[in-house]
Fold this sequence. Notes:
The complex is a heterodimer.
Chain A: E1 3-12, H1 21-30, E2 43-47, H2 59-62, E3 66-69, E4 72-75, H3 80-85, H4 96-99, E5 103-105, H5 108-112, E6 124-126, H6 163-168, E7 178-182, H7 191-195, E8 201-203, E9 210-212, H8 222-226, E10 232-235, E11 240-243, H9 248-251, H10 258-262, E12 268-276, H11 280-284, H12 288-297, E13 299-300, H13 305-313, H14 318-325, H15 328-335, E14 352-355, E15 364-366, E16 369-371, H16 388-395, H17 401-421, H18 427-436, H19 441-452, H20 456-459, H21 467-474
Parallel strand pairs in A: 1-14
Antiparallel strand pairs in A: 1-12, 2-7, 3-4, 5-6, 8-9, 10-11, 12-13, 15-16
Helix pairs in contact in A: 16-17, 17-18, 17-19
Chain B: H1 19-56, H2 76-79, H3 82-90, H4 92-97, H5 101-109, H6 123-138, H7 156-167, H8 203-207, H9 210-218, H10 225-230, H11 236-252, H12 260-282, H13 291-301
Helix pairs in contact in B: 1-6, 3-6, 7-11, 9-11
Amino acid sequence: MDVRSQISMVFHLDKCIGCHTCSIACKNIWTDRTGADYMWWNNVETKPGTGYPTAWEDQKKYNGGWEVNGDKLELKSTGKRRTITNIFHHPHQPSMDDYYEPWTYDYQNLFNAPEGPDQPTAKPISMVTGEYIDIEAGPNWDDDLGGSPVYAENDPNLEGLTAEQREQLNAVERLVFFYFPRICNHCLNPGCVAACPSGALYKRGEDGIVLVDQNRCRAWRSCIAACPYKKVFYNWNTGKSEKCILCFPRLETGQAPACFHSCVGRIRYLGVLLYDAEQIESVAKRPNEELIDAHRDMILDPFDPAVIDAAMRNGIHESVIDSAQKSPVYKYVKTWKIALPPHIEFRTLPMLFYVPPMSPVMASREGSTVDHVSENLFHDIDDSRVPIQFLANLFGAGHEAKVRYALRKQKAVRWYRRSVTVGDVPMEVAMRMLAEADCTVEEAESIYKLTSLCTFDDRFVIPPAHREEAIQMLEDPMEHKQSVGFGFLSKPRRGM
Amino acid sequence: MMSKSNPEQHSNPAGRPTEPSRRSRRLLQSLLVAAMLFAFQVSANAQEAPQYFRQNCMSCHTIGGGRLTGPDLKDVSQRKDRVWLARFMLDPKGMIASGDPYAAQLQQEARGVVMPTVSGMSKERADALLDLIEAESKLEKSQFIGLQIPDGPFSEADIALGRDIFLGRARLKNGGPSCVGCHTAIGLPGLGGGRLGPDLSKVFERLESRKTLGSWLLAPPTTTMQPVWRGHPLEAEEILPLVAYFEDVSRRGGEDTSPARLNFFLIGLAGTVAALVGFDLAWRKRFRAVRRPMVRAAALKRGQLR
């Protein structure tokens, strides 16, 4: 057992209101620079939709992530041979148009326009060429189903849905969408780190944050192709790649990352997970249907004395273990099993988990009246407006069981709390639902508390960074002992 | 401890040979080597002289074959003393510049052509060459009489054979390369000849006589051609048709009207286009873009494409 600690995250999609405050907070702190202007380390996508960059989930096009060839785990986009043959041109780069051409507006025109019959407007100007442009796309171009005949219909997660299901996603009173905020997943098996020919990307030992060393980056851009989530970006001004740093300067001083801190819906949770690094490769090779369970199994119980012992031997500080025991992420992922990794079939083993969103049931129509209330309590999940298969493609590697389990438990908790606070649902029904959803009353209460009544400190359990110890992994603090201070500056010469 | 860094520690007179005996032995050795080298050099010069003459002198001089660019060297040592001749051979340009009247006269006779400084010329070599010239002058017919080409008109067959040799259709006996690889001339088919060497259309006019041209071909003296032809000299029966061909080309004259240059340009253009189309076909499935094709396909599906 090789125990390591990882700062992990849960995004509770049922709470996301799609306000993009997280994106703005991140942009203002980190990517408000020339060359980084098109980057959104944090972005919020509407599902169904193609997201940013366009259709990033479609690895048939982008070739991101890993695949199992025989008994070997290989990157789809590159390998030793292909790194050399494509060293001057990486063939799987998203084009600028797949992100968007960053623009600003000609605000001066509002003041300086000559007098005319119309109001002057601020025309858009490309921030790349400086010319006037017609804006064709933006980072959230398909926000709230904008342009859905093009974008929503081409969502790669619609694969496997029947024509009827696809049809009803556009139908009045059946149409539905939810929000999907994304940052770097700080994966356990990061494709970007594996692909870099310069060794510029690394996963920080003490907390698992994946970073790009700006001094070692040589602009090969292999990371951009290899990351299936397209969360590494190339800065065309500095000629270096950049990515989400999980606001490590804030974490190290005990503050939540900017996007977490600013989240209006309070959907974001952050905490430490302990995991067994020995299992990474074997887990990443498992067949699709076993991936979620295997991924969960490698996350270790921070209360288990054997785990604590192994963690201490690996140099993980007691305070970090203490923090792992209080981690809200551990509860969502491991204890309650209602948070799922996004697209685990890319096999990078993401450490950002999503609680899948509930959605209204499909309305039934009787004559001219539309009825939203259903008699059938539980099985509504299958009648949800978002088809289960769609969520399964997103969070279950195409398999529905895990997603259905998470949704049933959430639904049971809702009905239980409704029975407690409103009282219009008989308690027996609520208890039956809890039992069927593999949930106890205590568990329902704690899910309810952490979901609805969570304080700042409940959501963000940030371990002390212990930079003073982390630095000891790389440098010996005793290195200069006896070489400074009083005494001879140079060795005395003998035999003179 | 102290003694370790003391240089005087190393001197030990008893265990070393004395300086004078050592030095004299060295001197003897080097003298011996120098003497052997010198002897070898002299004999080598004497042996090499005919070879050297053939390669470096024969393109301009004959011995008893009449004047080419330079004078006939038969009995040259009777016209001028050996010391002067050796000096001239070593540095022709310097002698002319020094205002020597005989040297100036020689230049005039050669219509202003200055004898080049021959590479590898040394005092010993000059002596050996003069010995050789003296010896050859006494003979009835020297081996360096040069190429004797009849004055009458060449036959059509000679011209045709010369053209074949030039184009490389007729194989050279000693395995030399064909002229067309580096040279061109007016009236060649296809893409014309090579452009590395000069255009040979007017070479006959430039060298002015069959004899000069023939001798030149016997041992081409330029820095580019000499190393190529040294091991594969042209035979006399190959030179004759070549001279015939060059004379013919030169006499016809005219402008270069062959379409070779245009053809070359057009073939280059077509080749470039073909290569680019080939690349595009080979990599037609490469990753280009996602969003624009997607938008276009959606518009096409709905028949909205303008």
